[in-house]
Amino acid sequence: MLSQTKKSITIPPGEVAVGTDGALSVGGAVFASLGLFGFSDGSQLKAEGANRYVAVDGAVPSQSRTSSIHQGQLEGANEDVIQGSLDLLMMGPIPLELAVAAKAIAHWLTTARS
Protein backbone atom coordinates (compact mmCIF):
# COMPACT_ATOMS: atom_id res chain seq x y z
CA MET A 1 0.00 0.00 0.00
CA LEU A 2 1.50 3.30 -1.09
CA SER A 3 0.65 6.94 -0.48
CA GLN A 4 -0.01 9.53 -3.17
CA THR A 5 3.74 10.23 -3.12
CA LYS A 6 4.50 6.49 -3.61
CA LYS A 7 5.80 6.05 -0.05
CA SER A 8 4.92 3.31 2.45
CA ILE A 9 2.03 4.02 4.79
CA THR A 10 2.29 3.17 8.49
CA ILE A 11 -1.11 2.40 9.97
CA PRO A 12 -1.66 3.57 13.57
CA PRO A 13 -3.62 1.51 16.11
CA GLY A 14 -7.39 1.72 15.94
CA GLU A 15 -10.19 1.13 13.47
CA VAL A 16 -9.21 2.42 10.05
CA ALA A 17 -11.77 4.10 7.81
CA VAL A 18 -11.16 4.58 4.09
CA GLY A 19 -12.74 7.45 2.15
CA THR A 20 -13.68 7.18 -1.52
CA ASP A 21 -10.87 9.64 -2.25
CA GLY A 22 -8.34 7.36 -0.54
CA ALA A 23 -8.16 9.28 2.76
CA LEU A 24 -7.20 6.95 5.63
CA SER A 25 -8.37 7.89 9.10
CA VAL A 26 -8.50 6.53 12.64
CA GLY A 27 -11.06 8.07 15.00
CA GLY A 28 -11.91 10.69 12.38
CA ALA A 29 -8.32 11.96 12.09
CA VAL A 30 -6.80 11.55 8.62
CA PHE A 31 -3.27 10.13 8.83
CA ALA A 32 -2.55 9.40 5.14
CA SER A 33 -4.03 9.15 1.66
CA LEU A 34 -3.81 6.11 -0.56
CA GLY A 35 -2.28 6.61 -3.96
CA LEU A 36 -4.63 5.82 -6.82
CA PHE A 37 -2.62 5.22 -9.97
CA GLY A 38 -3.45 4.12 -13.47
CA PHE A 39 -2.16 3.91 -17.03
CA SER A 40 -3.27 6.18 -19.85
CA ASP A 41 -4.40 3.22 -21.95
CA GLY A 42 -4.50 -0.56 -21.89
CA SER A 43 -1.57 -0.94 -24.27
CA GLN A 44 0.76 -0.11 -21.35
CA LEU A 45 -0.28 -3.35 -19.62
CA LYS A 46 0.52 -6.92 -20.59
CA ALA A 47 -1.70 -9.81 -19.52
CA GLU A 48 0.04 -12.49 -17.45
CA GLY A 49 -2.95 -14.72 -16.94
CA ALA A 50 -6.69 -14.66 -16.40
CA ASN A 51 -6.69 -11.59 -14.15
CA ARG A 52 -3.05 -10.60 -13.78
CA TYR A 53 -1.38 -7.67 -15.50
CA VAL A 54 2.11 -6.16 -15.50
CA ALA A 55 3.35 -2.85 -16.90
CA VAL A 56 5.28 -3.15 -20.14
CA ASP A 57 8.88 -1.92 -20.14
CA GLY A 58 9.04 1.83 -19.76
CA ALA A 59 5.36 2.28 -18.82
CA VAL A 60 4.90 4.57 -15.83
CA PRO A 61 1.57 4.91 -14.01
CA SER A 62 0.19 8.36 -13.28
CA GLN A 63 -2.06 9.49 -10.47
CA SER A 64 -5.68 8.69 -11.33
CA ARG A 65 -8.26 11.45 -11.14
CA THR A 66 -11.25 9.24 -11.98
CA SER A 67 -10.74 6.25 -9.65
CA SER A 68 -12.42 5.81 -6.29
CA ILE A 69 -12.16 3.41 -3.38
CA HIS A 70 -15.02 1.42 -1.88
CA GLN A 71 -14.32 0.35 1.70
CA GLY A 72 -15.22 -3.26 2.43
CA GLN A 73 -15.08 -4.42 -1.20
CA LEU A 74 -12.89 -7.32 -2.26
CA GLU A 75 -10.29 -6.42 -4.88
CA GLY A 76 -9.16 -9.25 -7.09
CA ALA A 77 -6.70 -7.75 -9.57
CA ASN A 78 -3.31 -9.47 -9.79
CA GLU A 79 -4.44 -12.24 -7.46
CA ASP A 80 -4.59 -15.93 -8.26
CA VAL A 81 -7.27 -16.92 -5.76
CA ILE A 82 -6.69 -20.65 -5.95
CA GLN A 83 -2.91 -20.44 -5.64
CA GLY A 84 -3.23 -17.90 -2.83
CA SER A 85 -5.55 -20.23 -0.92
CA LEU A 86 -3.18 -23.14 -1.39
CA ASP A 87 -0.25 -21.01 -0.24
CA LEU A 88 -2.13 -20.17 2.96
CA LEU A 89 -2.89 -23.83 3.57
CA MET A 90 0.70 -24.85 2.99
CA MET A 91 2.11 -22.23 5.41
CA GLY A 92 1.03 -24.00 8.54
CA PRO A 93 1.25 -27.57 9.75
CA ILE A 94 -1.78 -29.39 8.33
CA PRO A 95 -2.49 -33.08 7.88
CA LEU A 96 -1.26 -34.58 4.62
CA GLU A 97 -4.78 -35.72 3.75
CA LEU A 98 -6.08 -32.14 3.92
CA ALA A 99 -3.26 -30.85 1.70
CA VAL A 100 -3.94 -33.56 -0.91
CA ALA A 101 -7.69 -32.84 -0.82
CA ALA A 102 -7.10 -29.09 -1.21
CA LYS A 103 -4.86 -29.62 -4.22
CA ALA A 104 -7.41 -31.99 -5.79
CA ILE A 105 -10.17 -29.42 -5.34
CA ALA A 106 -7.98 -26.66 -6.78
CA HIS A 107 -7.17 -28.84 -9.79
CA TRP A 108 -10.85 -29.60 -10.32
CA LEU A 109 -11.75 -25.90 -10.07
CA THR A 110 -9.12 -24.83 -12.57
CA THR A 111 -9.99 -27.53 -15.11
CA ALA A 112 -13.77 -27.19 -14.67
CA ARG A 113 -13.61 -23.45 -15.43
CA SER A 114 -11.58 -23.90 -18.62
Please describe what this structure looks like.
- The chain has 114 residues and is of the alpha+beta class.
- It folds into 2 domains: 1-74, no CATH class; 80-114.
- 25% of the residues lie in helices and 19% in strands.
- The chain contains 2 helices and 7 strands; from the N terminus they run βββββββαα.
- It has helices at 81-91, 96-112; strands at 16-18, 23-26, 29-33, 37-38, 45-47, 53-55, 62-63.
- Strands 1-2-3 form a 3-stranded antiparallel sheet, with no helix packed on it. A two-stranded antiparallel sheet has the order 4-7.
- The longest helix is centred in the C-terminal third of the chain and has 17 residues, at 96-112.
- The chain is flat and about 50 Å long.
- The two termini are 32 Å apart.
- The model has no long low-confidence stretch (mean pLDDT 77).
Tally of domains: 2
Unreliable residue runs = none
SSE string, helices as H and strands as E: EEEEEEEHH
Radius of gyration: 19 Å
Mean pLDDT: 77
Q: Layout of helices and strands, plus pairs?
A:
Layout: E1 16-18, E2 23-26, E3 29-33, E4 37-38, E5 45-47, E6 53-55, E7 62-63, H1 81-91, H2 96-112
Antiparallel strand pairs: 1-2, 2-3, 4-7, 5-6
Keywords:
single chain, 114 residues, alpha+beta, 2 domains, three-stranded antiparallel β-sheet, two-stranded antiparallel ribbon, 2 helices, 25% helix, flat
Please provide a brief summary of the model.
With about 110 residues, this protein is an alpha+beta fold.
